[in-house]
Amino acid sequence: MNLSATQESPAVRVGLTALTVVLLVTLLLLPLAVVFTEALKHGLAIAADALVAPDAIAAIELTLIVAAISVPLNTVCGLAAAWCIVRFRFSGRGLLITLIELPFSVSPVISGLVWILLFGANGWFGPAFDRAGIRVIFAIPGLVLATTFVTFPFVVRTLIPLMEQQGASEEEAALTLGATGWQTFWRVTLPNIRWGLLYGVLLCNARAMGEFGAVAVVSGHVRGQTMTMPLQVEALFNDYDWVGAFTIAGLLSMLALLTLVVKAALEWRIGSRGGPLL
Amino acid sequence: MMQPARHSALPGFNLTFGITLLWLSLIVLLPLAALILRPWELGLAGVWHSITEPRVLASLRLSFGVAALAAVVNVPFGLLVAWVMVRYRFPCRNLADSLIDMPLALPTAVAGIALTALFAPKGWIGALLTPLGIKVAYTPLGILVALIFVGLPFVVRTLEPVIMDLPLDSEEAAATLGATRSQIVRRVVLPALIPALLAGFGAALARGVGEYGSVIFIAGNMPMISEIAPLLIVIRLEQLDYAGAAALGLVMLLVSFAILLLLNLLERRIHQRT
Fold first, then answer.
1. Which CATH superfamily is domain A43-270 in?
2. Is B113 part of any domain?
């Protein structure tokens, strides 16, 4: 058999590999490099000043608050959804999966728009909430709702293949031995899926903290009040405050890098690349 | 109606199904109902008028056109990267593999300003292109660059598992029969990858059509020239034209779904034939 026909010649292999490396470096690494270069252009001290500016601190805090509400909500509900989708067969199950994945195929801007249609000044519920003194749009609740919509599928999508692959035999054994449903969940199910769950939470959190389009629509851009970090990046960039914009962008880039590192570690732990794309 | 049939020994169906349905209804279904229903406040003629304005049509053409072009570019790029990642071993391969997800992990606004800085006339890449008379930042070409950036992982990640599962023996069989490597690639490998290439193309296209954050900084946002459809939705919302914004959003969503459905059918047709 002509072995050379089952793989490319060494020259072709080296060429294609080099081409790939060049492509990945130009397309993926250069943007990252430019962020840190621009942030540190006038020195570390100025970048540090930009990071502790009152508006920057407020943006960091707001980002953490929004993620701290929407990520746990989506985690608990994602766990519930995965349990009923994987462990039971019922009519409408396929439809349920499709609907859960829907937010992934919606433009971020539409993910924000829908909340304005509901809670904006001309929204279905906007005037009623306004009379009750509750502000949703241009306030934290709107940011949380938009972020929750965008990050809705992550935990479920990660857990479904994992739990399907693991099967229900251990849970059935626990129940047969007399464990209650909750005991089974805490002692058997949760330990079995913990790395996969963490993987889903990681992706969910990365998107929640980095989301731009959806929150841009519902934020109202009140400086120091309704600006998350990505929105603050936009505002500073449009003000020609490049050092300020790229410093916060640098912080977000470090979050992205950290996410990729932990993701790689978890994939190694789980033994496969289990989850959805971010 | 919703009767559990299998694994009925396990508890918790009612609780988990209830939470799921409640959560789905509040967070996804209710908002989407508003998107579907609100445009019609304008009346049928009003909706038609609102989505056939020249500025709207130009933005839709731009969004779908550039997203399609970026997805076309990403097919060979993605094929190259996926092939090298799966079939070859080289130093720092794991690092490179993790990097592929960078466009997904990096917040879109960060990608947007970074690409703008790179391709601005005085930027690292822009400065090289300006003498050649190529303007990227603040033109539709800038949108293309941004969409290639965000779309690449979709093609790579769709292709990788399929390339991994390609049966090596069919390549070996072809080699035994005297085929050259380039014949094998063209006649055996590529045809087997076509459904995955289509799926990757579709995923990159769908992402590109709706993309906002990475595009608006580099696009220049000139009405009729470099104004994407999502931006026009934002503009309409700022003018308090909720129904008009919803109409445009609904059109984008429906056209995207139609394209994905078509690609899906095509994929299935090809799958059946092979």
1. MetI-like (1.10.3720.10)
2. yes
